[in-house]
């Protein structure tokens, strides 16, 4: 029987200023760090198998891609026009007032997801645009550029012609616009130990995507007419988790929603056997870490995935947070969308699989969806 697997993506964020770090490689794990002058935090992406194989040499048991990229935007004050014509994207940069004498005064370097455009003016180099985070990958060998009156025109072939680029750079605005075509209405569930972090980031995602914001804490407290803390004191955390599980069941059929879940022991997401309805949407684990560098974060993620000791490791996407400040909620939301974009582009059938999982009744058979008529209780009885 064929096995369906999914890939989780890890993002590591530091709110400290970016430091200059060297590029280097780890055994079997391509690893690079880029430096830019226009970054506010570091984004570390790591492909992690979401299911394990009994074969130790299987690719599913290895980290196939590991990279650290500084999230950057176009150079400030850059005046440009952008368009997407299916198979290629076009960027037009203004050359007004730069007194360009010939094409030799222009330097264009486009490679993968990075782009640098500089011009020579009055004996010095002026950067028109610089980013190491274009919206997606291009085919560098097929990049062409030319001067059209007072504009520099750059045409770049997209690696994925089916993906519509909202802008040349990956930013909050382009991610929220571009994620709509990728998610295809699938909901997003935020899980993790901190209810507050889940709520703050969920609010940013809902506003950015135009999704409905649903907060399980608010729903539970409205239903019980008491706070979660008083509920835990009166009946215990398991009672709250059971009630949240019922809430998640009712929300599992919702589309275009961002759901903030309870953190800690009272949360259903903290218990692996209560993920049946969380699988209905894309799950993002917002994980606080004490790791001070990328290597430590990588090792922590590897341990989480390998031993499955934390129920949150069932999530599709993991975002590691070094510290927390509510003012940075949008940055974390942006990282979550970036990781989800990478995940879905690695398997464009995932949104459809989520939809199928819901239509079949959220039976807990994710990611290996069983045929219609399959009953998990019958399988449990046959095993026993």
From TrEMBL:
GO CC annotations, alphabetized: cytosol
Protein family (similarity comment): Belongs to the shikimate kinase family.
Top-rank lineage group of the source organism: Eukaryota
Every CS domain range: 75-169
Organism: Populus deltoides (Eastern poplar)
One GO term (biological process): response to stress
Protein name in UniProt: CS domain-containing protein
Family matches, as Pfam families: CS, SKI
């Amino acid at each position: 029987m064929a096995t369906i697997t999914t890939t989780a993506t890890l993002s590591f964020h530091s709110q400290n200023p970016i430091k200059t770090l060297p590029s280097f490689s780890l055994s079997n794990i391509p690893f690079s760090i880029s430096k830019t002058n226009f970054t506010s935090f570091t984004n570390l992406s790591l492909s992690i198998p979401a299911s394990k194989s009994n074969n130790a040499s299987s690719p599913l048991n290895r980290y196939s891609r590991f990279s650290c990229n500084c999230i950057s935007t176009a150079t400030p004050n850059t005046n440009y026009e952008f368009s997407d014509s299916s198979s290629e994207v076009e960027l037009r940069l203004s050359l007004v007032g730069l007194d360009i004498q010939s094409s030799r005064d222009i330097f264009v370097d486009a490679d993968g997801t990075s782009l640098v455009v500089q011009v020579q003016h009055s004996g010095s180099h002026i950067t028109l645009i610089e980013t190491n985070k274009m919206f997606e990958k291009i085919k560098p060998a097929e990049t062409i550029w030319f001067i059209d009156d007072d504009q520099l025109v750059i045409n770049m072939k997209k690696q994925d012609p089916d993906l519509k680029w909202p802008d040349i750079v990956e930013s909050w605005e382009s991610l929220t616009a571009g994620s709509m075509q990728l998610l295809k209405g699938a909901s997003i569930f935020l899980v993790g130990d901190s209810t507050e972090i889940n709520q703050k980031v969920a609010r940013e995602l809902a506003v950015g995507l135009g999704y409905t914001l649903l907060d399980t804490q608010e729903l539970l407290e409205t239903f019980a007419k008491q706070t979660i803390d008083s509920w835990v004191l009166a009946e215990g955390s398991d009672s709250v988790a059971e009630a949240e599980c019922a809430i998640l069941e009712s929300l599992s059929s919702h589309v275009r929603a961002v759901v903030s879940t309870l953190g800690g022991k009272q949360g259903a997401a903290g218990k692996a056997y209560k993920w049946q309805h969380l699988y209905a949407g894309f799950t993002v684990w917002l994980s606080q870490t004490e790791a001070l560098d990328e290597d430590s974060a990588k090792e922590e993620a590897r341990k989480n995935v390998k031993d499955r000791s934390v129920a949150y490791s069932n999530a599709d996407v993991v975002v590691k947070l070094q510290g927390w400040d509510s003012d940075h909620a949008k940055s974390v939301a942006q990282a979550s969308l970036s990781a989800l974009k990478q995940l879905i582009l690695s398997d464009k059938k995932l949104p459809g699989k989520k939809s199928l999982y819901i239509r079949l009744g959220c039976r807990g058979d994710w990611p290996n969806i069983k045929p219609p008529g399959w009953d998990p209780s019958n399988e449990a009885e046959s095993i026993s």
